[in-house]
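Hi everyone,

Forwarding the result from last night's run.
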Amino acid sequence: MLTFSKMHGIGNDYIYINCFKETVTDPEKLSVFLSDVRFGVGSDGLVLILPSEVADFRMRIFNADGSEAMMCGNATRCIGKYVYDMGMTDKIEISLETNSGIKYLTLYPDANNKIESVKVDMGKAILVPREIPVNSDLERFIAQPVTVDGKEYAMTCVSMGNPHAVVFLPEVDSLDLEKIGPSFEHHELFPDRVNTEFVRVIDDHTLQMRVWERGSGETFACGTGTCATVVAAVLNGFCKKEEEILVHLRGGDLRIIYHEDDTVTMIGPAIYVFEGKMEYPNL
């Protein structure tokens, strides 16, 4: 039997497997199977919680199409809740190894000693195009004109461990992301594909965002994408460093601070949905 937990960070939902107890031999195929809402469980992908030689814990994350991601901000918060609530640690400050480096989490227990929200030091924003990666020789890719499906967008590119393209628009509610999202994801500018954030500026402390995630489609939230969005908003002059920015996503809100040293802090909830057991599928 395979034991798993379903958790979400403001609607960005993943299946979590505790690999201190369970063995997963084919995570790419398992992620595709479990993510299917009809034949599996239904999720944006699969997260493995693993031992680490360099941090308190390690995570691997797989998208709904089976591709492996570098990291996920919402999933880091959920892992913080999981390891504390399940008694795997009694520390409220932990380190988490990801494919894009070690992230540092601060856990906030509620009155019942369960984790309600988590603050994550997301590290430094990467702005050099070839490191994001973007096929560009510019020093930074800020508000550059990019044509997608015959329409020109002013695009800002940032990596927060995953590559992001941020586009600011007058409104985002009416966008048909199922139609335009794949064209951004697979644009020739991005050798590793890209996550795309479509953003409306409400004021200098408030943004509204929708996200198309590579390998998963539109999701209700994206932690690294929200961080990239705030960085892009500062670079475009809409917001300021060292000020907390509230970002409204389809699944809820995140609070982000872009610091003077180019590091980014993310604060948001982590929600446990349910635990389940199933026969390990024949993949």
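The radius of gyration is 18 Å.

Cheers,
N.
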